[in-house]
Amino acid sequence: MENAVVLREWFDRVDAAGTGNITSPQLQSALAVGNLDFPLSVVQQMIRMYDFDRNGTMSFEEFLALNKFLQKVQTVFSSLERGRGFLSLEDVYEALIKLSFSLDSPAFYTVCESFDKSKKGMVRLDEFISICIFVQSARNVFRDLSLSKYHVLNFTPNY
Description:
Elements: H1 2-14, E1 21-22, H2 24-33, H3 40-50, E2 58-59, H4 60-80, E3 87-88, H5 89-98, H6 105-115, E4 122-123, H7 125-153
Antiparallel strand pairs: 1-2, 3-4
Helix pairs in contact: 2-3, 3-4, 3-7, 4-5, 4-7
């Protein structure tokens, strides 16, 4: 419960206008304070992943869901980074498996290449989070497409 209180205080500071929602730029700035530098497009993707009411902003409840995801990703990162501050590509692959993401080799290397800013095979925490956000978002899109295809295929008109 203490964690929820701390998160509420953090959320309220970010929501300086007191609207009950935070925007992508607000979330981006708040994450940057914690040394997590994300392009606005990644922050927008974070919000879309948990924007249950589809209003383009993040409520506190939606933020809690995002925070749970980010904590899980950070825990896996920490378990594999061995004090180096980065993951090797082999570590990234193992971390994705631990997070229940499965990519074939071409997809894995394409994703890593896209998010490895230094191009040295050393993926920092913010890059790893970006990879996970991308992969989870892609998973959600394919799931939604699969569900909509299923509903179309099982459509029975009412005559």
